[in-house]
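Blinded run. Sample ID left blank on purpose so nobody reads anything into the name before looking at the predicted structure. Input follows.
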Amino acid sequence: MRLSQSFGKTLREAPAEAEMASHQLLIRANYIRPAGAGVYTFMPLGYRVIRKIWGIMAEEMDAISGQEMWMPNLHPAALWQATGRWGQMDVLFKLKGSGNREYALSATHEEIVVDLALRDIESHRDLPRMIYHISKKFRDEPRPRGGLIR
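Blinded prediction complete.
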C-alpha cells in the first residue's frame, strides 16, 4: 500500500502537549495519535512497526527455546495480595467486578507467572523453563509524559 493511501495524515507542526522530541516525531509522522493523557492509538504504520518488533522478539525467544504464552490482562486481586503488592503499587488500576470481587489491570504479569509456577513446577526436574508473554500493560501514571516511553 502506498503511504498516500494510509489512514491519517502527517503533521507539519509538533503538538504542544508533546514534550520529548521522540514523542513529537511519532505524532508528526502519523505513527501514533493521542486519545488522552498517556493513552495512544497506534496508526497503521505504527501498528505495523509494533507487529514487526513483536515478531523479532518472538523469533529470538523461540530460538533459545522460549515458550510463548497469552496471559490475562485482568488479574484477580488475590494474586496481588498474595505477593504483598496490592497495596504497594501506586500505578495499579484497580476495579471491582460483579459480586464486589476486586481485580487489577495488568501493570506486569509477574503475579500470574508466580501463580503458574507454584501450581506447575513440582520439582527441580521441571526446571529450567523459559516462558514469555508480549502484550500491553496498564499503568495509572500520576503525570503521564514522554509519549510511549515510561
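Unblinding after everyone has recorded impressions. The beta strands are 32-36, 39-42, 67-68, 74-76, 94-96, 102-105, 131-132.
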